[in-house]
Design a protein that fits this description.
With about 160 residues, the chain is an alpha+beta fold. It contains four helices and seven strands, in the order βααβββαβαββ.
Length: about 160
């Protein structure tokens, strides 16, 4: 597969984005979101308003993944960005997560953020942890046994940080 196109989210992308969100949250392996979340609540949570941005990674018209990014906090913490990523299971291992992650880091740099911080990376999500480390992120702490994984039980959530 060629590198997917990463572009801003459009309303017409919502069915594909919702399909990915639904798949990811019902698996309960990587995101601490309610698996019973309804589409309207998911859209309100996932589709960022400025200064944030929501994007999709697509190929051949199919939405393969999605990301949202923006300030991690308001006020005195607004100089640090954050982002979240979801990739359709059928597209995993094909560079979609990498393309979305690189886009988010570049976006944060271009928009003047001083750093990027991920607040809750599930420690058993080793593919994501390894990807973020390759991009320069460091694990600066782990909250033990704070995520209920369906196969591994209670596992930690990493706080990961990249200073620009």
């Amino acid at each position: 597969m060629s590198t997917p196109e990463v572009r801003p989210f459009e309303d017409a992308d919502w069915p594909g984005v919702w399909e990915i969100i639904s798949e990811v949250i019902t698996a309960r392996e990587t995101f601490p979101y309610d698996p019973a979340m309804e589409p309207a609540a998911a859209r309100a949570m996932w589709v960022e308003q400025p200064p944030g941005l929501t994007v999709v990674a697509s190929s051949g018209g199919a939405v393969l993944g999605t990301a949202k990014m923006g300030p991690n906090r308001g006020g005195p913490g607004a100089h640090v960005a954050t982002a979240s990523f979801m990739v359709a299971s059928a597209a995993r291992g094909r560079g979609v997560g990498g393309a979305l992650s690189r886009f988010a880091v570049d976006w944060a740099r271009r928009n003047g953020y001083a750093a990027m911080q991920f607040n809750a990376v599930v420690e058993t999500n080793t593919v994501a942890v390894d990807l973020y480390r390759r991009l320069g992120f460091q694990i600066i702490g782990t909250v033990p046994r704070s995520f209920e994984h369906p196969a591994h039980g209670r596992v930690g959530l990493h706080l990961m940080h990249l200073e620009f």
